[in-house]
Amino acid sequence: MRDKRMTPSDVVAELSDGMTIGIGGWGSRRKPMALVRAILDSPLKDLTIVSYGGPDVGLLVAAGKVRKLVFGFVSLDTVAYDPHFQKARQAGDLDVTELDEGMFQCGLIAAGHRLPFLPIRAGLGSDVMRTNPELRTVRSPYDDEELVAMPALHLDVALVHMNRADQHGNAQYLGPDPYFDDLFCLAANRRYVSCEQVVDTFDGAVQTLLLNRMMVDGVVETPNGAHFTSCAPDYSRDEKFQRLYAEADWDCFADRFLSGGERGYQEAVRSWQ
Amino acid sequence: MAVTRAEVCVAACADLFAGDGEILASPMGFVPGLGARLARLTSEPDLLLSDGEAYLLTADGELEGWMPYRKVFDVVAHGTRHVVMGANQLDRFGNQNISAIGDHGKPTRQLLGFRGAPGNTVNNKTSYWIPRHSKRVLVDAVDVVSGVGYDKQAGPFHNIHRVVTNLAVFDFDTPDRSMRIVSVHPGVDVQEVHDQTGFELPRDEPAVTREPTEHELDLIRTVLDPDSKRDREVRV
């Protein structure tokens, strides 16, 4: 079996301008932030980001990496609105496909199942249909009910963060929620998993092994790699740092925390604390 | 101690769940959360309560189930859920906006996004909680339709139940399914409700919202919210 261990820069080297990148986690929870930071540190541009959005979206938008965003929400949870995302939207700078959260999941499942679309009731009557005029409805061939034909959300790449993984790409979440990370991986052509720790053997219930190695192309060991989002039970969200992120001037924040690579980031956070 | 406006609102939110039985209550906001827990302890003991993360909890906070985000979408589609959402804007037909103020292409204020509102409103019972009733929230027409109102084609399971604000309780039991006042909270002048609403409401003589019973007050004050956080969400 292959050893799939990589560094964050190895992952970024496999990405290219204009790619569609799905980012796992949920809001401000278990985001693959070390991989996001590696993208911030690269010349990549014009990305389409597909995310249940948290600070991953705000950071990438603030750094000018995003051409288009596919999302159901962007929130830092205790900070309701990400200021960088708000600023870009209010400037009219961002091309968006804004979906209902359930439609988003439906699109990932359709892509994972290699279907062009899946029917769903969500979206009917709402401005999801008006603001995304490419969306179509279908009539049930059985009872004529009209439903939304949610198109597959195909991803070039999925980036997710888990608590543990082995070198082959089997990966485990130890918190209470899998979020949608397995669906992101199945919807993508290339799948990279960062994790708190690479292990030889897994502890815990077998149901926590959310990803198996045929769903994963690369494994990156990034301790504290979801910071400042949560990675339960290893650590919770860094609320103080999140407030700093939300309130700081972007250039100052980027200069202080994002200019020295992942090691520099972790050191800057430690000295700030 | 006199009954406060916040306590009236908690009881009104508890009453939203009347008759719901064994379904998932999904209250957004502190006061509707208290209402759901109060209903579970009194009139609707079979309600399921989520912690808003991955757990189903009893009224005492004991674990009774697992409801991660992905499973919430299953429950939404199944319809065994009553959500109480907030609204940045709400119109007379119950269209709700939590997405953006202004033009969606270049909003004057970007809000959360559609979230689950489109799916919630066409799949499961939906109510709204508005802690600050004003013309800015109760508008003639919302800028972006997130939750779907009664003037839209929304399929067979569309069910907007009620709206509770800091001033009154509303439903949509009119011939054209537009909003009307069910009851005005004790101490609120009906005219104030009309004045603070950005659209015409029928000029019926509404009832007065009930006050919580002694038992309910005791639960609210000593068990559910001993620190009176409710008073921070509802100000008179």
UniProtKB/TrEMBL annotation, chain A:
Record's keyword annotation contains Transferase: yes
Keyword Transferase recorded: yes
GO terms, molecular function: CoA-transferase activity
Sorted UniProt keywords: Transferase
Signal peptide per UniProt: none
Organism for this UniProt entry: Kibdelosporangium phytohabitans
Alphabetized Pfam families for the sequence: CoA_trans (PF01144)
Cross-referenced SUPFAM superfamilies: NagB/RpiA/CoA transferase-like
UniProt xrefs under InterPro entries: CoA_trans_fam_I, NagB/RpiA_transferase-like
Annotated protein name in UniProt: CoA-transferase
SMART domains: CoA_trans
From TrEMBL, chain B:
PANTHER family recorded: ACETATE COA-TRANSFERASE YDIF (PTHR43293), CHOLESTEROL RING-CLEAVING HYDROLASE IPDB SUBUNIT (PTHR43293:SF3)
One protein family per Pfam: CoA_trans
Keywords: Transferase
Name of this protein: CoA-transferase
Keyword Transferase applies: yes
Family: Belongs to the 3-oxoacid CoA-transferase subunit B family.
Gene Ontology terms for molecular function: CoA-transferase activity
Membrane-crossing residue ranges in chain numbering: none
UniProt cross-references to InterPro entries, sorted A to Z: CoA_trans_fam_I, NagB/RpiA_transferase-like
